[in-house]
């Protein structure tokens, strides 16, 4: 028997198609978008966790004690909570800046040690768990580990069931502090293996002393992992809501194209902070004439833009120090014995400062921070509680704010009165610089 279609029936079917097809398209687009950022999260995590490097000197400190061994190859960037004293790899400096510093035996990696000076820190350049996941999840500035979840962020949920069978790449594992005042931890799921529709193994990567970890656990071991220590498996369901204004693509760093490219490290000349890096104008720049290939060097040339600032005769390998007080973008290169020019190092000299209110600001009223910058664009102000629960608040600046040199902290932004660290952050094409002060907020 043939089916009979009335005109009304056809109209109903066509109407249903008209209504359902766009809806299906929207759902497919949302799914594609989710899949895209998750793929990027894994790709970007691997930039930091799969990089290989070999110290060329003794003295590069490990978090937890000891030193990275000269001549030993390591995988993953070093663990160090650099805060506002050192530089965070991926956010404050390019990965290639770290790799250049590794090749200079007189760089800050070997001559500076933050152990005992900055809590949870060791090397001058490094990452921690929260900066590692924030970098992978395409944030412009790191979220604290405890701030990845729904208590602080929108668009993220606790998964059900809490098991390997629910896991997907891009998911977050959060471990709360073991005790009052202890540190929390965050990890990233980067791979899920399955067989016949059942998950058999889950790969988890994180930043953990001394570098990064890459652990593939079978499903049972993964379940045991997330069921202990009060851990939770979370999923970002709305990527834009979770990041809000904290989007890497809105700023110069992180720069994933630069970080994923293989850099050409200078074999003749390197800076104490590596290469491709900003300096404060009150910081000396130390040029290490290395001449690794023994071609012979006549002179060191320092230029600001197209202007030669100084040409220094070079008689032997070694460090030449200069204090450059004029802000701008600089290059430095060597004139070799045969008259050829070496590869140039690139860096910038910058100034950054800010003033807090004379009187202690009240938590329930807006208050103002005035700032100035030279050869930097001030991108934001961060306010952080230095004690548990380590609340962190961001004030992102508009172009009008930058032109006016003012940031307004909204009333009630800071949840509790007390001592707060204020960071003002500026960036240019070579990286970011931060100035820090403390303020006491009153009720």
Structure in words:
With 443 residues, the chain is an alpha+beta fold. It folds into 3 domains: 49-258, no CATH class; 266-350, Immunoglobulins (Immunoglobulin-like, Sandwich); 356-441, Immunoglobulin-like (Sandwich), CATH 2.60.40. The protein has 8 helices and 24 strands. A hairpin with a 2-residue loop joins strand 7 and strand 8 (198-208). The longest helix is centred in the N-terminal third of the chain and has 43 residues, at 7-49. The model is unreliable at 1-22 (pLDDT under 50).
Which bin fits the share of residues in helices? 10-25%
Number of domains: 3
Q: Could you tell me the strand content as a percent range?
A: 25-35%
Indicate the structural class: alpha+beta
Largest sheet: 7 strands, mixed
Beta-strand segment tally: 24
Q: Please, what is the average pLDDT?
A: 92
Net shape: globular
Distance between the first and last residues' Cα: 81 Å
* Low-pLDDT sequence parts: 1-22
Radius of gyration: 26 Å
Q: Number of helical segments? A: 8
